[in-house]
TrEMBL record:
It is a multi-pass membrane protein. This is Glycerophosphocholine acyltransferase 1. The chain crosses the membrane at residues 170-188, 194-210, 217-237, 243-262, 313-334, 385-404, 410-432. Keywords: Acyltransferase, Lipid biosynthesis, Lipid metabolism, Membrane, Phospholipid biosynthesis, Phospholipid metabolism, Transferase, Transmembrane, Transmembrane helix. Residues 61-90 are annotated as: Disordered. It comes from Plasmodiophora brassicae. One of its GO terms (cellular component) is membrane. The lineage of its organism: Eukaryota, Sar, Rhizaria, Endomyxa, Phytomyxea.
Length: 466
């Protein structure tokens, strides 16, 4: 395929036919290509593909203004077969030429059109139109999501819905406690599965809820680090006795004593309080069962590191576990205090009032022994350093008696009951304090009603004489 002229472009030659494209400045190449029409050669308009038989061109000769004598002569040289055979193959050959021409010229003309000013403007307009449509659809989707979220928030604040959620949480909390007790006395492997599924569910819900409230930095506290170590022991290194001793020390040391320190409460209708109790108490129950009923489990409790569990020393359970604790403390401090590790915001968490951490929560509590100690330091940096030191001392001191729990079933059982009792006591205080106020208002209403009734009865009758 080739072009020999600007006005009359020679496209291709078949045995009996020629195809022409008449170039024109006012013809859009894309439109001309897509709208192919067959006209007589003498009546072909501008910008239209022309099909004309060669034998017809011979008869017209020089009278045909669209063909030269040289072109007709060259066409006569290639016409060697009979007219009957040419007529049968004319349609097929012409279709092939048009197909090839369309494939080649369409791309060239389209590229030329897009590179010109008019084509570039069309492309810009089309792109702008598409972007506007995408923007409108995005806004519609965002508005629908926002409306659904507002409707859901309004529904969750409805008192009947809140009461329903509280009832469901209370029921689930009671059932979960019963299942835990039953599995604790039945099988260690079943207890491991129950702990695995329950903690994953509770922490997943907490991640969703805490991110909305700006509490996500609570999720990197030491209790969650210990939970990760428990999963590491259960599923990655089940034969590591050293890792079990570290998990035992953390679960029965700082995690267990965090129940009275953070006032964890067994409040069954509150999902957040139940989750906190599960995170701090269930590792203690799990290690209790694994330590004293090892035959029911496929995990390694005391293996190659010690000839027996009785040879575990104080350094093994209170000193060596400080290494992973220090690693966590360094990572936690860098994450919460350094602006270089926070990609989402340019300031540190300490300067962001919307982000809560354990340190900021203790400072805002305005009560407790830790708050009173931190208030003795003048600056915020000194308070932060003091909090880190206090947390380290708390971890070490609470891990020292875990050696007794590890070697004595009775002491370990008493300690376990003590921690659960403290959690139940905190829950009882919560229920009594909340419901006492309701009782007070209910009793006051009853007393006022009784006083009104008594005053109405004791009022003397007035005789109205005639």
């Amino acid at each position: 395929l080739q072009q020999t002229s600007a006005d009359l472009a020679y496209v291709g030659t078949t045995r009996l036919r020629r195809v022409y494209r008449v170039a024109s400045a006012d013809c859009d190449p894309v439109v001309c290509i897509n709208k192919v029409t067959i006209y007589p050669a003498s009546a072909a308009p501008k910008g239209i593909f022309v099909w004309m038989p060669l034998n017809r061109a011979r008869r017209r000769g020089s009278a045909d203004e669209r063909m030269t004598e040289d072109e007709v002569g060259s066409a006569s040289d290639v016409a060697t077969d009979s007219e009957e055979d040419d007529e049968r193959s004319a349609s097929e050959v012409f279709g092939q030429i048009v197909d090839v021409f369309l494939r080649e010229v369409r791309l060239e003309n389209l590229q030329t059109t897009l590179e010109t000013g008019r084509g570039a403007g069309l492309v810009r307009d089309a792109r702008k139109h598409i972007q506007d449509q995408i923007r409108r659809q995005r806004h519609k989707i965002r508005d629908k999501i926002l409306q659904s979220r507002l409707a859901w928030q309004k529904k969750t604040l409805d008192p009947p819905f809140c009461r329903f959620i509280d009832k469901m949480s209370f029921t689930v909390g009671i059932l979960g406690s019963l299942i835990t007790v039953c599995l604790l006395g039945r099988s260690s492997d079943l207890m491991v599965k129950w702990y695995t599924y329950l903690i994953v569910l509770l922490i997943s819900l907490r991640i969703y809820l805490y991110r909305k409230e700006g509490y996500q930095y609570f999720l990197i506290d030491f209790c969650y680090f210990t939970t990760g170590l428990v999963y590491m022991y259960l599923y990655l290194y089940p034969k590591s006795s050293t890792l079990f001793v570290h998990v035992f020390a953390f679960a029965n040391g700082p995690l267990a004593w965090a129940v009275p320190l953070w006032r964890n409460s067994l409040v069954f209708h509150d999902l957040d309080k139940l989750t906190s109790c599960a995170i701090h108490i269930l590792p203690m129950l799990l290690t209790f069962q694994l330590r004293w009923f090892p035959s029911d489990s496929s995990l390694s409790i005391c293996g190659d590191e010690w000839p027996s569990c009785g040879t575990v020393a104080l350094k093994d359970i209170a000193v060596y576990p400080l290494l992973p604790y220090v690693i966590w403390q360094i990572a936690y401090t860098l994450k919460t205090q350094s602006k270089f590790l926070r990609l989402s915001k340019p300031v540190s968490v300490a300067d962001d009032d919307l982000m809560q951490t354990s340190f900021k929560w203790l400072l805002s509590a305005n009560e407790g022994p830790v708050f009173r100690i931190l208030q003795k330091f003048p600056t915020l940096a000194a308070k932060e350093a003091a909090f880190i030191v206090l947390q380290f001392l708390f971890t070490f001191v609470t891990m020292v008696p875990t050696l007794l729990y590890f070697h004595s079933f009775a002491i370990h059982l008493i300690f376990l009951c003590l921690i659960i009792t403290l959690a139940a006591w905190n829950g009882a205080n919560f229920y009594v304090e909340v419901w006492t106020s309701r009782y007070k208002w209910a009793n006051r209403a009853k007393l006022e009603a009784a006083a009104r009734e008594l005053s109405a009865v004791s009022q003397p009758d007035v005789y109205h004489g005639s």
